[in-house]
Amino acid sequence: MKKQHLNSLDQFAIEAFQEDLIDWFKTEQRSLPWRENQDPYRVWVSEIMLQQTRVDTVIPYFNRFIELFPSIEALAEADDEKVLKAWEGLGYYSRVRNLHSAVKEVQEQYNGQVPNTPKEISKLKGVGPYTAGAILSIAYGVPEPAVDGNVMRVLSRILLISEDIAKPSSRKIFETAVRKLISQDNPSFFNQALMELGALICTPTSPSCLLCPVREHCQAFNDGVQEELPVKTKKKKQRLVSLVAAILTSDDGRFLIHKRPNQGLLANLWEFLNVETHLSFKSNKQHFQKFMDEQFGVDVTLNEHIGQIDHVFTHLEWNIQVYQGQVHSEVDETTHLKLVTDEQLKDYAFPVSHQKMYKQYLNH
Fold it and tell me: I want to staple 275 with a disulfide (CB 3.0 to 4.6 A). Which of 93, 128, 152, 291 is the partner?
């Protein structure tokens, strides 16, 4: 497969590509809530939410988040627990923790104005090259590249780039390409159009080439190799972790919940009590009861098995055997271990897997 070299593209070809792409975007772009204006804060929130999450999933979350925290100031002053609760179900919780920290920095150091230069915006926590480029180009009209998986897929086909897009080093190649191709007059629409093209037309499998507004510029289509690009090596298989978990209730009907550590996977989220196990299914109950006694000094019994939850992360997979059980001793409540009513339960942010456990418990 031959490679298209950027240097061989003349200015006329680049301008024709820009015009075809942007004209298509003007007429075909989806109506999305974060496109209602170019407020950098709204762009920022949407881009963080859209990382590794589908647009249809993000829309209700975005609307609710902006309703709760309509401005930089509102989010900066918000309680951590309330922010995590608003993000509950979106996953990748480090994203919202970084966003919250960065927004506080913007409020304190920049008078609530999102920085409009690559150097300053890139210093903010959780703002990598893609997010910085997206905010700068979409909100401020700065011709900076915003290269995500969509953009790499589109450009690998248009420019016949066969570097492995799973390698971090490949991003530089695509950033260089965007700098060469980007519209100086309308970088906002140009970057959004590339993303939109990847989402709607130039899809991972079976791209709709006959509907593509820039088909005549596409080297892969011209050579008939669009299905072979982009080149992307597969990720390693997730590590399997077996867990025993229990929905534990006290004599007065309150639920025992635990807060995860403030570092690592699902940091600061609440959960029902659980422990990793390497034992047989028959030994689950005894293993869990011993864990509760040794770790928290709480005497519990597990009753019936109410279900199984399989939850996949980027790097690992949880297999959770779920039980219901009772607390028989006093609980020494702390900031990380609480007994709460079913009504109070709604105020705490839980991972999706634990929300599913609770639904199993209610259905059971």
Answer: 291
Burial of 354 (C-beta count, 10 Å sphere; 0-12/13-18/19+): buried
Q: Is 47 a catalytic residue?
A: yes
Do residue 221 and residue 253 come from a single domain? no
Task: Indicate whether 108 and 252 sit together in one domain.
Answer: no
Catalytic residue among 19, 28, 36, 47: 47
Bridge partners, 102 (sequence order): none
CA distance 220 to 161: 9
pLDDT digits (tens, 9 = 90+) for 74-108: 999 999 999 999 999 998 899 999 999 999 999 99
What is the distance between the alpha carbons of residues 341 and 338, in angstroms, rounded to a whole number?
10
pTM of the model: 0.86
Range of the domain at 13: 6-228
Residues 258, 220 share a domain: no
Residue of 102, 131, 95, 128 whose CA lies nearest to 266: 95
Q: Cα dist. 102→46, 110, 120, 122, 252 in Å?
A: 15, 11, 12, 11, 42
Distance CA(68)–CA(58), nearest Å, equals 15
* Domain limit, last residue, from 228, 262, 288: 228
Write the pLDDT tens digit of every residue in 213-255.
999 999 999 999 999 999 998 877 889 999 999 999 999 999 9
- Long-range contact pairs involving 118-124 (C-beta distance under 8 Å, separation at least 24): 118/142, 118/144
